[in-house]
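User: Structure with flavin mononucleotide, tokens only please.
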Amino acid sequence: MKRDSTTQILLVATLLCVVCSVIVASTTVGLRRRQLENKRLDQKKNVLLAADLIQEGEVVSQKSIDELFSQKIQRVLIDLKTGQKADPDTVDPETYDQRAAATDPNQSKLIKPAVDLGRIKRREKFAFVYKVLDSDGTVDQLVLPIYGKGLWSTLYGFLALARDGTTVRGITFYEHGETAGLGAEVDNPKWKAIWPGKQIFDENGDIRLKVIKGSVSPASPNVKFQVDGISGATITSKGVSQLVRYWLGPDGFGPFLKHFHQQQDQQTDA
Ligand SMILES: Cc1cc2nc3c(=O)[nH]c(=O)nc-3n(C[C@H](O)[C@H](O)[C@H](O)COP(=O)(O)O)c2cc1C
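Assistant:
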């Protein structure tokens, strides 16, 4: 066969394509485990950040994150409908992928438009909650995964609540596509610092927590329920407000929080 014949050129091109495909495919497979591991570590780090167990900008090694997480955090998979721990025969917490479940029609449910405050259309049936434990094993905080639409994107984050189940301890977003300097100010430590101490429920158990447009007046009777909006980013601010309210409500973690309140009351009475 001539070196510059059409057959020869096609053969070399085909071989080159096959070799390149094999290299790309094997690299992707090889990196997939590492990517999953990094994702898992990032989730842990964000749970710890929301719970204020590590600080923004703090350099923490992978080993320390793993150690702190296993010492302090108890991860529980719950059935959002009942608010009870999920039956491991129905769903295995070790292999459960909450993010994938959220869009899988078999593992999620449609949200009625009237209650879809986070504008996510469907939500997973099972969700992880993270219990932050004291040295004596009592629950000090709850960290709940939250997500919903801002202006351009879906924001994914965690909300930490004190053991009373109504006082905010922290909020963090680990993924979104809002505009830098505007909606992306949800990541600004100064804005996040407004959240701790805010109250979610009033004495009737109604959700009152809200991000308002503008600044909260210190004289307002609702100051404990309100968070300043981000200026120039009213749409993202409203999105955060609504998604938080959705996840704390009856279609989100409401049933779980109800059980949690009852358990806390029983412990206080005992
Ligand atoms: C390029 C561009 C990017 C924007 N990004 C955001 C954003 O990420 N979040 C947001 O709420 N508003 C964003 N806005 C502004 C909104 O269009 C809207 O004007 C704003 O949310 C109103 O907020 P304000 O009432 O506080 O001014 C953006 C505007 C422009 C022109």
